[in-house]
Amino acid sequence: MSSIKILHCADIHIGAADAFLGSSADSRMFETLITFENIIDLAVQNEVQLLAIAGDLFDAPTPDAAFVNPVLSKIASAPNLKVVYCAGNHDPLIAQSPFVINTLPQNLFVLPTEDTCLVFDDIKSRVYGRSFDSAHLQGEEEFSLTVPQDDYINILVQHGELKSDLNSDYNAITPRFIRNSGMDYIALGHVHKHTPVGKLENVSFAYCGCPEGQGFDELDEKGVYMGTVGKGSADLKFIPVARRKHIHEKIDITNVEDISSFILETLKDRYQNFGDHLYKIEIIGEMDPDSTINCAELSARLSTALYFVKIKDSTEYKIDFETLAKETSLKGVFVKKMLEKQEQAEDKETVKRALKIGLKAFSNEVKYNED
Hints:
Number of helices: 9
Radius of gyration: 26 Å
Shape: elongated
Order of helices and strands: EHEHEHEEEEEEHEEEEEEHEEHEEHHH
Largest sheet: 6 strands, mixed
Helix content: 25-40%
Number of strands: 19
Structural class: alpha/beta
Distance between the termini: 60 Å
Strand order of the largest sheet: 4-3-2-1-13-14
């Protein structure tokens, strides 16, 4: 066998949900479970031989049985698929781990906490790695096991942090470690953003990222790697699998009358299944001084069509500030003073925003916690 077909996933964090989702958080937790089940289905449909899960399958070391039992059942439902798992820093292999206290499917192989080699003669492959035994793990200078020089394909499944040295609490993996590992492919987990498949000497390696985003700091496409690994080669394709995306959009509403309808139409044009995603919408543009924007009202109207939305108002008033500053009124004095302060300030944008909020205050439009 010159190559094997693999699927590489990591950081599924089953049981996790964005805290800001409120009443939707519980269902979002189970969506991470469903995404994992879909990954198993994807592997079976594509006749994958080895599923490598590089850590943090669960979001906690002792997850609820409502998450554990379906995971084990789903793995058992694909008996021809070899599933290799190394526990990560979120679900380390402790005494109470579900991978310790439960009877595991025969096709699930959990790597112990010391360097280990699993030999699969039927696919002429070896899978190496080790699990976290706590929330932190010290990296190694070199892999402690000798890799035989033969025609078997060698794969390392590892949760850890690519670093130039071992200065990390999360299993530092250095270029030296990679070069001297003797592997054909290193399936990495821990970093939630997928990377291109890199190569040092004859060793290919990559982070597949997480299959579901965990917040608005994770806006890239989420998915898994799937393809073939051979001696000294890895031909892998990134496959998006996320149920929902986290999206940050800036939308210009200058001269727009029906703002909520305009936002929905914009999102519909830009995103497939646009109503399923989580949005952070920043509205920009120029507004008439007599116009008002109520972010709470906008959110309420948009929430009828969108799974989650948060609105930030970054619009500007169409105002001739110089003319307004000449008015013999309290508002005129305020504008004059703020323009002087803006001229002298290093952070002019902050002063400009303060001017905007101050003008809204004259119309009783500012709320105490406005940001």
